[in-house]
Amino acid sequence: MNAQELKNVLQTYCDNQANIGVCVYALIKDAEKSTPFKLDIEVDAQAGLKDLFIQSIRDEILRKEDISLLALSSADERANAIYVYDLPIPEELTSLETVVTQDDLPVLNLKEVSLSSIKALLIEIGNNDRQLVLYKTMAHINIFSRASFFLRKHKSRLERVEEEFLRVSADFQMMRISGELLVLKLEALERNFGFHDVIKREAALGIDAIVSADLLINPDVLRELVDDVKYARRLTKIAKASPVLKAGISGASIVQFCKTFPLLAKHRFQFNAENNKIILDTKVSKDLFIKILMDDFLTSELTKLHYASVAKDAVEPSTEEEN
Question: Domain residues of the chain, as ranges?
Answer without folding.
Answer: 3-193, 197-322
